[in-house]
Amino acid sequence: MTRARLRDFGFTIGHLPPGPNNAITDVPEVRVGHTTLIYDHPRVARTGVTVILPRAGNIWQDNAFAAYHTFNGTGELTGTHWLNESGLLCYPIGLTNSHQVGLVRDSFVAYAKEHGHSDSSALAIAAETYDGWLNDIDAFHLTRAHVYQALDAAAGGPVAEGNVGGGTGMICHDFKGGTGTASRLVDSRSGRYTVGVLVQTNYGDRHQLRVDGVPVGREIGPDKTPLPEKKPFMDGSIIVIIATDAPLLPVQCKRLAQRATVGLARAGGVGQNSSGDIFLAFATGNHFADSAGELYELKMVPHHHLNPFFEAVAEATEEAILNALTAAETMIGFEGRTVYALPLAELQHVMAKYR
Fold first, then answer.
1. pLDDT(1) > 70
2. pLDDT category, 290, cuts 50, 70, 90?
3. Cis omega before residue 158 (within 30°)?
4. What are 173-211's pLDDT values in tens digits?
5. How many helical (H) and strand (E) elements, i.e. helices and strands, does the chain have?
6. pLDDT of res. 295
7. Longest Cα pair distance anywhere in the chain, in angstroms?
8. Which of 46, 176, 178, 322 is a plausible cystine mate for 134, CB 3.0–4.6 Å?
9. How confident is the model at residue 118 (pLDDT cuts 50, 70, 90)?
10. Which uninterrupted H or E stretch holds 196?
């Protein structure tokens, strides 16, 4: 069966409406770019990099309020000290594998210098999950040119999902995982805004997986779809990036980032011991272009207007995870290891059984 998105099968998560692309790019001027590396020689590559570029590439000059939340901290997100100190996102966001998060971070800095985007040394944001089961991770396949390629390819509109970009070699609930995205339109007392989510999924055990509350992972057991052979320490990780065009302050961005935990839990994530479950939210509703030394005029959605935003984050996170699973294809990788895709016909059968 052709791989597709969750809604293509008639399954919806929550009740809030999605944006036109049901993707993080529904947030105005948010762009996504991927570089995907799949080859077998001279060493096996099943990896890549995904770039989220806010403000249509003007994030270097016009920063955005942002904050992050760590649900379980066996992972890496660079630039967090400056993010805590300033509350500002000053660079694009990069997602890749565990051994090349530094390469992505350094490439962002180099790209900014080479293109005249920044004369500062603000610390870049890059995050990782471990793809070493399918990817020969010690081969360090990614280069600066690959990161530049993703930056230059970043675009709005529909976003490729599954075995692409940083999600190329990832595993989710013992099925093939990867990159997924979703969005929600929020009608709050402060107005209508968009919340978009992009995930890199690499976490979870089979029996934990739920689709809109249905215990799909228990129904599609190893007797129906084999488990990938895994080492005991490989609990995996998930990175969640949340974007909104609402005028939120850093403390409110953090509150949104915390709600990604709800969406993750609904899909079956529990924050295992060696899982890096790290979530970052940014808001583009305020602007920080050069003020010639004058005071900034900021707006803020009142805290008591945030409940629909929290709901939107939970719904979009859950659906983005499931989109990664329905889009990803079976992959054979390093040392001939195979990770099977979520079987879509069986998914439909299970969902019909419970409905």
1. no
2. low
3. no
4. 999 999 999 999 999 999 999 999 999 999 999 999 999
5. 7, 14
6. 87
7. 66
8. 46
9. confident
10. strand 191-203
- H or E, element range at 89: strand 88-89
Domain boundaries along the sequence of the chain: 14-287+297-348
Residue 275 in contact with residue 235, Cβ under 8 Å? yes
Q: In the prediction, which pLDDT does 289 show? A: 75
342 phi and psi, to 5 degrees? -60, 120
Residues 6+ apart with CB under 8 A from 83: 66, 67, 68, 89, 123, 125
The mean per-residue pLDDT over the stretch 148-164 comes to: 98
pLDDT of 248 > 60? The answer is yes
Report the b/e string of 316-345 with b at 16+ CB within 10 A: bbbbbbbbbbbbbeebebbeebebbbbbbe
- Interhelix angle 144-153/101-114, rounded to 10 degrees, is 60
Sign of the CA dihedral running 133, 135, 136, 141: negative
What separation in angstroms does the CA of 351 have from each of 2, 47, 268, 331? 18, 32, 16, 25
Place of tokens 């997986």: 209
Active site residues: 237, 275, 277
Residue 156: band (very low, low, confident or very high) from pLDDT cuts 50, 70, 90:
very high
150: Cα separation from own chain's centroid: 15
Q: Which token pair is 317?
A: 């996170």
Reading the block at residue 40, the tokens are 């077998």
Strands 88-89 and 64-73: antiparallel
The topology under which CATH files domain 14-287+297-348 is L-amino peptidase D-ALA esterase/amidase (3.60.70)
Q: 7-41, pLDDT tens digit by residue?
A: 999 999 999 999 999 999 999 999 999 999 999 99
